[in-house]
Design a protein that fits this description.
By secondary structure, this protein is α/β, with parallel strands linked by helices. It is built from 13 helices and 13 strands. The strands form 3 sheets. Strands 4-5-13-10-11-12 form a 6-stranded mixed sheet, with helices on both faces. Strands 8-7-6-9 form a 4-stranded parallel sheet, with helices on both faces. It has a 3-stranded antiparallel sheet with strand order 2-1-3. The chain is globular, with a radius of gyration of 21 Å. It binds pyridoxal-5'-phosphate (PLP) and zinc ion (ZN).
Length: 389
C-alpha cells in the first residue's frame, strides 16, 4: 500500500504510480505487526530485514552488510563511525534501492527500466537489470559523469544516452517518457527504491547495538536522507528501539537549494545552475525535497553546505589517515561533520554515511597529484630519491 505524504490518499502497491494526483510524493506503508526483532548484530546483510520490505521476489547481488568503522585515527577521543557503502556490489548505496526496486519491477511484470543519473544510479540499475534479464535505459548529464560509473553502466549492457543538460533536465525527461514507453522508472521518486535504502538505518542499529545521536550524509536528490529516517522511525514504531537520531544532511555549496531554504526560510526554490566537484550531488532541484525537509524537522536535524575544497580535503584525510577511499560526494559527510563539530552543533555518537567508493571517480584524484619523472634503475639513485622526497 502507498500513501501520499501531502493529502493522505492511498494507492495499491500493484499500480505503476510515482506521484499522487495532487502532485505529492508517495511512501510505502509497511505492516509493522509482521516484523520481528532480528537485530542481534550477526549476519548483517540487506535481506536479513526482509519482513520490513514490501516485495516478494528477490533480485539480489548480495548487497548491504557493509562495514561500520570507528574513525579512531581522525577522532581518537570521539565516537565517530563511518558506514562504508562503497563496499556494496556496484560500489554505492544505490544497490540497496535497486535490489528492492528491480524486484518490484519484476513483480509488476515490467521488462524495461529507465532512470536519469549522475552516475551511481546508472551503474546500479544497469547491474540489477542485467541480473533480472531486463532492458535498461539511462539518461545522463552530458560530460558530467565520473569515469568509473560510466564504464559500469556500459559494461552491464545498458543503453546510455547523454542529454544536453544537467541531471534535473534528464529527470524531467524521464518522467515524461515513462508512460509513453511503458518503462519502470527507478529514480528515487520511486517509493519502492527508498524501501531498500531504509535498510541503512537497520544495519547501523544492528552493527552499533544502539541508535546513534547523529547520522550524517550527503544530500543530492534527497531520497537517501528520507529513506534512512523512515527506517529509524519504523524501528521505533515497531517497538524495537526507543531513541531516534538527528538526521544531518550535507550539500555542496554550489548545489545547496535545501540548505538555503532552511536557513533563509520561505518556499523551496531550485538552484538553476548546480556546480560542484562532487558530481553525484550536482543536483539543483531535488525531487524528494519535501520528504527531506520532513526528516530534518521531525528529527530536529540539520542541513549544512561545504565547499569543494573542504570536500577534497576530507576525501584525502579519510584515505590517508584511515585507509578508506570514498568518492567526493561521500567525503561531504566528513567535511560537514567537521564544520558542525567546530561550531559545537553536533555531539555524541555519530555515524557518517560514505555513499560511494573512491574508484568511481579516479580523475578527481589524478588531477590533483602528479608522478615524478622515472628514476634510473639502480639502488643508489633509488635510495637518493626515496630519502630526499
Ligand atoms: C555517492 C552519492 N552520494 C550521495 C548521493 C545523493 O543521494 P540522494 O540523491 O538520495 O540524496 C548520490 C546520488 O546520486 C550518490 O551517488
Ligand atoms: Zn496527494
Amino acid at each position: 500500500m502507498l500513501r501520499c505524504i501531502e493529502c493522505g490518499r492511498f494507492y495499491r502497491g500493484d499500480e505503476v504510480v510515482y506521484r499522487c494526483e495532487c502532485g505529492g510524493l508517495l511512501e510505502v506503508i509497511v505492516d509493522l505487526s509482521r516484523v520481528d526483532d532480528v537485530f542481534d548484530g550477526k549476519d548483517v546483510r540487506l535481506w536479513k530485514y526482509e519482513r520490513f520490505l514490501p516485495v516478494r521476489k528477490k533480485v539480489s547481488l548480495e548487497e548491504g552488510g557493509t562495514p561500520l568503522y570507528r574513525l579512531k585515527n581522525i577522532f581518537p577521543s570521539l565516537r565517530v563511525f563511518l558506514k562504508n557503502e562503497g563496499a556494496n556490489p556496484t560500489g554505492s548505496f544505490k544497490d540497496r534501492g535497486m535490489t528492492v526496486g528491480v524486484s518490484k519491477a519484476l513483480e509488476l511484470g515490467m521488462d524495461k527500466v529507465l532512470c536519469a543519473s549522475t552516475g551511481n544510479t546508472a551503474a546500479s540499475l544497469a547491474a540489477y537489470s542485467a541480473r533480472a534479464g531486463m532492458k535498461c535505459y539511462i539518461l545522463i548529464p552530458g560530460g558530467k559523469v565520473a569515469l568509473g560509473k560510466l564504464s559500469q553502466a556500459l559494461i552491464h549492457g545498458a543503453k546510455v544516452i547523454p542529454v544536453k543538460g544537467n541531471f534535473d533536465v534528464a529527470l524531467k525527461l524521464v518522467m515524461e517518457l515513462s508512460s509513453d514507453l511503458r518503462v519502470y522508472v527507478l529514480n528515487s521518486i520511486n517509493p519502492f527504491r527508498l524501501e531498500g535504502q531504509k535498510t541503512l538505518a537497520f544495519e547501523i542499529y544492528d552493527q552499533l547495538g544502539e541508535v546513534p545521536d547523529n547520522v550524517v550524509l550527503p544530500v543530492g536528490n534527497a531520497g537517501n536522507i528520507s529513506a534512512i529516517w523512515k527506517g529509524f522511525k519504523e524501528l521505533a514504531m515497531a517497538g524495537i528501539t526507543k531513541k531516534l537520531p538527528r538526521m544531518v544532511g550535507i550539500q555542496a555549496e554550489g548545489a545547496s537549494p535545501l540548505v538555503r531554504m532552511l536557513k533563509e526560510g520561505g518556499e523551496f526554490r531550485p538552484c538553476s545552475n548546480p556546480e560542484t566537484v562532487a558530481t553525484a550531488i550536482r543536483i539543483g532541484n531535488p525531487v524528494n525535497w519535501s520528504k527531506a525537509v520532513r526528516a530534518i524537522r521531525e528529527s530536529k536535524g540539520l542541513l549544512e553546505s561545504v565547499s569543494d575544497g573542504e570536500i577534497l580535503r576530507a576525501q584525502y584525510r579519510l584515505a590517508s589517515k584511515e585507509g578508506i577511499f570514498v568518492e567526493p560526494a561521500s567525503a561531504a559527510s566528513l567535511a560537514g561533520f567537521i564544520k558542525l563539530k567546530d561550531l559545537h552543533l553536533v555531539d555524541g555518537t555519530t555515524v557518517l554515511v560514505a555513499t560511494g567508493h573512491g574508484l568511481k571517480d579516479p580523475n578527481v584524484v589524478l588531477d590533483r597529484f602528479s608522478l615524478p619523472n622515472p628514476v634510473d634503475p639502480d639502488v643508489e639513485s633509488m635510495k637518493e630519491r626515496i630519502l630526499n622526497h
